[in-house]
Amino acid sequence: MKTTLTLTTAIAVAMLAGQASAQDLSYATGNLNGAMIQTDSDEFQSLTLSGAVELTYNQFLFGASGAYQTLDLGSQETFANYDGFVAYMPTAQLMVGAGLTGLTIDGSESYSGYEAFAQYRTGSFGTAILHERPLGNDDDFTVTTFYGEGSVTPEITIGGVVETVSDLDETVYYVSADYAAGPIFGRAYHVGISGVDATVFGARGSYDVNPNFFVSADLQLLDGFFGDNTTIYSLGGGYRISDSATIDAAFGQFITDSTDATMMRIGLTFEMGERKRLDTRMRNAIRTDFANGLGILQPDLGIGGGLNVY
Q: What pTM does this model have?
């Protein structure tokens, strides 16, 4: 039952924009994304439906999000998560808030938790902290994530994410650099885990051929995640149906020391406005980094910075 409700939530939050006035709506998105990885003997599939909305009312920000994912890595599993929050903005730069979260696995294993967050953000610099207890008071499992980003020049932005998990001794860190100028966008990133010999170096970019069509490319170099070195690359492109709707696709390969695999992904995205929460915006960028690679093989738990290493 909770899985069905969460799926309905994912669809509903993307439609709330049509019922809100333009003055109150600050952000809305909906996404349908399907991917497949195929080897000589196996086939893995992932299908995700997600949505989110943010509404402002005076100095308050209200938000909701939901996602439903089916993941087949030999046997099919489903993951559904939701989040609802309210935040107070005493100034244009400062925000504090709290919310309720939920996670359902295979329609029967359900968890309810809560989150608290704060951020300080100017036009050129921002920092945020998110503390989550996704399993509720009955479990001591917590995730604390620190976010920060700053503009070096009008074209270049650097960012960093540090995540600690109560049940683990390791700390996950993530650094990134974005370049955006005219039709060109590029992003490079690095993921590391303290005390663990596992790293990811990645880059992705796109070029607007014209106002509607764009081409894209991704590269990920993984060390220690699958027991050997892995290279993932893809080429793709997309078409902007309107100012707020885009369809895109990518085709690529996973290359390991022992086997190769072919990857295909297609997505349909609706997005309007800009997220006011820095943590959710940076988490979404991380998910996009891995959308054509490692992210296909991971469940979307809706927890932390989107790194999903626990």
A: 0.86
